[in-house]
Amino acid sequence: MNEEPAVIRCHVVADNARALREFIRETRPDLGCRPVGRGDRAGVGMDVYFHQDQLDRARGSRAASLVDITAVENVTENWLARKEEVGGGDRFADRDAFPHGLGRKE
């Protein structure tokens, strides 16, 4: 089985929007559903998603000197842990039981 590299959510901060855009243009991270750059005292930041190998390349990229990259969470690891919570049976089989967890659509 060919295993995909882990997906890592990162917070990337640059001094200004131009530097952040340049980093994103060069490294091509997944920006998620609604990419929004937020300004604060540190500059302009945004959450992005990289496969682990992409993150390693992004940290070594030319534009990496323009930003501060902080790995926030291993999304793949969290997803696998949540997947373990899903039961194998029919959670609606017992009419008196209160459904919980993720269900299976049939």
Order of SSEs:
EHEEHEH
Main beta-sheet annotation: 4 strands, antiparallel
Radius of gyration: 19 Å
Shape: elongated
Structural class: alpha+beta
Distance between the termini: 27 Å
User: Residue ranges: pLDDT <50 for 5 or more in a row?
Assistant: none
Question: Helix proportion of residues, in percent?
Answer: 25-40%
List the quaternary state of the chains: single chain
Q: Got a strand count?
A: 4
Major sheet strand order: 2-3-1-4
Structure description:
The chain has 106 residues and is of the alpha+beta class. It is 26% helix and 26% strand. It has helices at residues 17-27, 52-59, 75-83; strands spanning 7-14, 38-40, 43-51, 67-74. A 4-stranded antiparallel sheet has the order 2-3-1-4.
SSE topology sketch:
Elements: E1 7-14, H1 17-27, E2 38-40, E3 43-51, H2 52-59, E4 67-74, H3 75-83
Antiparallel strand pairs: 1-3, 1-4, 2-3
Quick structural gist:
The protein is built from three helices and four strands; from the N terminus they run βαββαβα. The chain has 106 residues and is of the alpha+beta class.
Give me some keywords for this one:
106 residues; alpha+beta; four-stranded antiparallel sheet; 3 helices; 26% helix
